[in-house]
Specification:
By secondary structure, this protein is α/β, with parallel strands linked by helices. The protein is built from 12 helices and 17 strands. Helices cover 32% and strands 23% of the residues.
């Protein structure tokens, strides 16, 4: 099967681009002297993860226990579940531990730490717990100098639970778009997480692991002194948000959605395609950035970007392609629209957010350098 023969909409991974992205990140981590633990929520695909591990990744990061279960069943043992543990999920986590999974759980508050301690005592299961640190005010975690950090660690220590390390995620890096700002945040992320580890060690808690990571800061960091591992996810495919942040080019975006032109609205300057928000997702992350790509950047079926053409609107199964660089009152000339996009034309759309777009599909079509396609399963659920 080739791209022209695909039933659309279809999610396509350009394997050559993906492979280059994996190799580049892994080489960078080696140069910085740290392990790399990719975040696999972006793809939820064992074929992709096998390529990451073959390149040198040490373990994986997951965002759901379903991911942990699926990847452990596929032979991946070292897994960090990087979302604060819901105590009701501890029985599922214990089942993985007892089966031999080196599962690491995360807490960032005394309530969760106490719940883990009580469950561990009652069920005689030895969890390895990591404490989440907030280094940029983005989402969750304990600030490096807060008293709560030692309170949580002491709850775990008193229960005989191993504190495997501290981890943080500089999610606010997605809001940046200059090299200097990214370098500064990468250093803030590193320094804050190392500071948290130092405070724990000062009171006799070993805390061997120091884990940082986001795709932008992983690519911007100048040094990682005191860090043991880095996590990043979207780098493997990249997307338009990362393009706007400034850490990838169009040519490095390995995920696209193949769609078919199914109609025109000439008086509005619209081309109608069969990829709506059910295919592209509702993620409009670029709308908050300097360059708004609507629901995606339009490319030829060969993957060549068509400057100015975006998916400007989306219904459930219909996408609207139009010229973003023309005012609404001046639609694209009908002749150009019909010449460029006759009905039946296949196009490829680069997504705003690779994780969200991938989540719309049960499988990827992996495109080889020779133009052949194979199917890579992707799983859903929590």
């Amino acid at each position: 099967m080739t791209l022209d023969q695909l039933d659309t909409p279809a999610a396509v991974i350009d394997v050559a681009k993906m492979t280059r992205n994996i190799a580049s990140m892994q080489a960078r981590m080696r140069a910085l002297g740290v392990h790399f633990r990719p975040h696999v929520k972006t793809t939820k695909c064992i074929d992709v993860v096998r390529a990451q591990i073959a390149a040198g990744a040490v373990g994986i990061t997951v965002s759901t226990l379903k991911e942990a279960e699926e990847f452990f069943a596929a032979g991946v043992v070292d897994i960090l579940y990087a979302v604060g543990i819901d105590p009701t999920k501890l029985p599922r986590a214990a089942k993985l531990k007892r089966a031999g999974c080196k599962l690491k759980l995360v807490v960032d508050n005394p309530y969760a730490a106490t719940a883990v301690a009580e469950f561990s005592r009652a069920e005689q299961v030895a969890f390895e717990i990591w404490i989440e640190v907030d280094t940029d005010g983005h989402r969750s975690g304990i600030k490096p100098d807060e008293d709560t950090l030692l309170e949580v660690a002491n709850i775990l220590r008193q229960a005989g639970i191993e504190v495997g390390g501290v981890m943080t995620h500089a999610g606010s890096s997605y809001e940046l778009d200059t090299p200097d700002a990214l370098v500064a945040l990468a250093e803030q992320e590193r320094a804050g997480c190392v500071r948290a580890a130092q405070r724990l060690r000062a009171v006799g808690i070993a805390c061997p692991g120091v884990s940082v990571g986001s795709t932008p800061t992983a690519l911007a960091a100048r040094k990682l002194d005191g860090v043991t591992e880095v996590r990043a996810g979207v780098y493997v495919l990249f997307d338009l948000v990362m393009h706007n942040v400034g850490v990838c080019t169009f040519d490095e975006i390995a995920l696209s959605v193949v769609t078919t032109v199914i109609g025109h609205q000439a008086d509005r300057g619209w081309v109608i395609v069969d990829a709506g928000w059910m295919a592209m997702s509702r993620d409009r992350g670029t709308s908050k950035q300097a360059h708004d790509f609507g629901y995606g950047q339009v490319c030829t079926v060969d993957g060549v970007p068509l400057p100015g053409y975006i998916v400007s609107g989306a219904n459930q199964e219909h996408g609207i392609v139009s010229r973003a660089d023309l005012p609404a009152a001046a639609p694209a000339p009908t002749h150009d629209m019909l010449t460029l996009f006759p009905i039946g034309t296949k196009l490829r759309i680069l997504p705003n957010h690779a994780c969200a777009t991938g989540a719309q599909f049960p499988a990827y079509h992996a495109l080889s350098e020779h133009g052949d396609l194979s199917v890579w399963r992707r799983f859903h659920g929590w």
